[in-house]
Specification:
With 145 residues, the chain is mainly beta. The protein has a single domain, classed as Jelly Rolls. The protein has no helices and eleven strands.
């Protein structure tokens, strides 16, 4: 990434636009298939003034096994495009529950409005997992420089 600043340049507070956008899920979501499902409320929308903005996004997934299942997977969607890295959880006994995390570093190519959302699914269509609210959360550190 190219620095937006040059050697010897005085940097003012107004040159720095670093902020955190966060949200918690607002309802439990049960996944029973490999189809990615939005985790209700675990979405942040914000605007950037520069191109190639770097964000560090942390997704926290509070998950419980309902019935014998494949792995539960937690995903990040960036402006409608799902990222390849996933949070993955495999359990063997019904009612087991865990909080898992995944961290993504992303670049937002264009200036403007951006939407980041957490999604859930199963790795195979077997059994079911529930993603619980309000402990499933998303937090993005946005460096709009």
């Amino acid at each position: 990434m190219t620095s937006p600043f040059v050697a010897g340049q005085k940097i003012h507070a107004s040159d720095l636009n670093i902020f955190i956008a966060g949200a918690a899920s607002s309802g439990d979501v049960t996944c029973t298939t490999t189809t990615l499902t939005d985790l209700t409320g675990a979405t942040v929308t914000f605007s950037t003034t520069h191109a190639n903005v770097i964000c560090t996004v942390t997704g926290i997934f509070d998950v419980s096994l309902n019935t014998a299942a494949a792995a539960a997977t937690g995903h990040l969607s960036v402006d409608g495009s799902d990222q390849t890295t996933q949070a993955i959880l495999t359990m063997t006994t019904a009612t087991q529950r865990a909080t898992i995390a995944q961290c993504w570093t992303i670049a937002l190519a264009a200036a403007g409005s951006h939407t980041l959302k957490l999604r859930g699914a199963l790795s195979a269509s077997a059994g079911s997992y529930t993603f619980f609210h309000p402990h499933t959360t998303i937090n993005a550190l946005v460096c709009d420089l």
